[in-house]
Amino acid sequence: MTDLYYIEDDPAIAGTVKEYLEQRDFTVTICTTLARAKLALKRHVPSLVLLDFYMPDGHGDSLCRSLRSNWKDLPIIMLTVRGDSRDIVSGFEDGADDYVVKPFELEVLHSRIRALLRRAGNVGSRYIHGSRHCCADPPIRLCKNSPAPGSRSTRIEGVFTALAMKPKSL
Known about the structure:
It is built from five helices and nine strands, in the order βαβαβββαβαβαββ. By secondary structure, the protein is of the alpha/beta class.
């Protein structure tokens, strides 16, 4: 199942989209405020974010910019009533990958989500617990048992680890 966050304050729209997508093997988490979305993102990065513009505690464009600066590859679809061409251009400039104007057809939204995911892959699985660090390149913390100068191995959190003489030479 592919997970996504839908940041939407209208329960009727959120419920309809959630029900439709969950019937198509998505796990949908609804965040009714930007603050709740930020908290959810600290715990887990989803495969995709659907983002409304008008939220009770601010505008979605600020969260979109934050998402893009923290998770460069995370697919974001703005899903909003703001359909003026300037709003759409602004949404893309803020970091959205796609922009869908309400009202919309659920089948079209589903197709756009699938197309984005096809290009991006499962981006959410590349991040650890909402951090910006990629799973393939996690931060390394050396403790008091750090290797002696010139040593080519050490133990990191109990695991024997080889060290390279030059960066990227392993």
